[in-house]
Amino acid sequence: MDRNFRVAVVGAGATGLSTALCIQNRIQNCDVTIIAEKFSPSTTSDGSAGLWTPFIVPDKQKEIVTRWALQTYRYLWDMFHSEAAYQYGVQLISGFNFCQEMKNEPPWSKNVVGFRRLGKEELKDYPGREFGVFYTAFTIDVPSLLSSFLRKFREQGGFVIAKKLKSLQEIDSSYDVIVNCSGLGAAELLDDATIKPKRGQVIRVKAPWIKHFYIDIDKSDDVTYILPGVNSVVLGGTSQDGNNSTEDNQADIDGIRERCLKLMPSLRDSKVQGTWAGLRPYRETLRLEIDKVTAGLKAKIVHNYGHGGSGLTLFWGCAEDATNLVLDLLKSRKARL
Description:
Helices cover 29% and strands 30% of the residues. By secondary structure, it is of the alpha/beta class. A hairpin with a 5-residue loop joins β9 and β10 (223-228). The N and C termini lie close together (11 Å).
């Protein structure tokens, strides 16, 4: 490319920052700007438990979601084995995932380390759990990841603008391509009524004796999880439709604690470090595509939003695909110059 093209990435959560960094790393002669109202530690991503495991993802997209998840798994594997693992808050961890029925293994089972079904003797230690699997994944200290991504982005010449956008038209004339990673913000930016909030509540405790993760989905569809991270253990959780509150709810906190204690009684002596409530950006189909219908805009638009509860499971795979779309658009634009 003969001149510097200008790309804007809207959003500074895990999806936005990883997409901006991936574009910056892979596309030469390209100035990249991140535009967002909120940055770490105030994004939805910051409150995430940060475990790599596909969760609240569209049934319609299992094949492509699996590909994105495994691309991210491999990225985290390389990161964990690098000198920067602690800086990025990436931790290799094994654990248990319980369920009420299991007809088939998940499509990613053959590609993660140590995946196996739990035997009857193992399940005896967890009364009421009829089926389960064990595998090795990653937990991420998300604020560490986001701050490291943003620092690296700036060091490599990236631009950052703190601004709340009401529409993409506000920045249209300044960029060749706009990548929309706005999460729930897409409801306002694009008038997208298909994106819905799923409210999550978590507790963070100090419990250094917990060395494995535990996930339990019971017959009432409550999701209970115990996820050790670098600095704390995350207890959860909720996945609530129709509740847009980001305030802590004591009934939810009490319910989470009760369920986690039932699964792991030793947590009774754990010290609470903090609580968090936030809204996951869920869409019936995760949107990662070139916008074909936005009329009257100079810039081309790429969308990358609607990751539900799996933003930290899919972020790098989605960033790579979004970057491929940006590259295609810039090549097409260069050909017309």
